[in-house]
Amino acid sequence: MTAPHSTGPHTPTDAPGAAPARPTNRRRLTGSLLARRLLGHGVTYLVLALAAALTLGPFLFSVMTAFTSTRQFAQEGPLSIPAPPVLENVIGLFTSPDGFVTPVVVTVQMVAVILAGQMVFSVLAAYAFAQLRFPGRDLLFWVYIATLMVPQVVVVVPLYLMMSEVGLRNTFWALILPFVLGSPYAIFLLRENFRGVPGELMDAMRIDGAGTLRLLWHLVAPLNRPIIVTLVLITVVTHWNNFMWPMVITSGPEWRVITVATSALQSQYNDNWTLVMAGTTLAMLPLVLLMVVFQKQITRSVGDATLR
User: Fold this and answer.
1) Residue 77, by phi and psi: left (phi above 0), alpha (psi -120 to 50) or beta?
2) CA distance 190 to 187
3) Burial class (CB in 10 A: 0-12, 13-18, 19+), 79
């Protein structure tokens, strides 16, 4: 009896000890997924790096030029690295006749008064709209919030006429009065957060004899500290950078703020760009420091708002 024999060629799987094909395909699939993931991460980081360069480039250019000497800037151009860095431009800002001493002092005073007024009145108004009950509360709230839709350019002329009629043009009061009594944006944001305070906690404090101000100071405000800190930063940045209203309502160096002074540098020293960039760097430095110091509070406030 003869043994049967095969008529076709032997495949690799027929041979004893041959490796199956399935693990090889799995390795190829894993390698392909890993390559796609690495490519996706690479593209993401490339886009983020380009966005960071476009965002931070002007600030870096301003800082580099501020510490570059006038001679080096004229010889090597605006993109040269300061070698060595000099302080003559910063010193020149404070020693020139129309220097930055008065604008910095006026701006700090203006921002401090507006910040204190807005925080006090915005917190009180937001608590009233969120927790107190009175006729026409919701209607009054939405009418007030509707003023957010009105561009600032529209109200500049009426405000200017009002300040001129009462004799406040070119005074410190003209700088602060339109903004010191609260902000619609701040009241809206605080009201939405104050409404999220648990009613059980407020009832428990009322049973213990707490009044409205005690509730606000010891319960509502501490629970909403991140959003209040964020509003403080937004208020400081907004009014530190305010340009149009101070330029319109003031004239001369007496009540000139830092943004108007920086703009004036461009017309007075249009060929001395190192001095202009020193003024720009000085104007933005406090805001950068504030953002670096309080960035965790901003992140917490955004997270709390998202969870609510």
Assistant:
1) left
2) 5
3) exposed
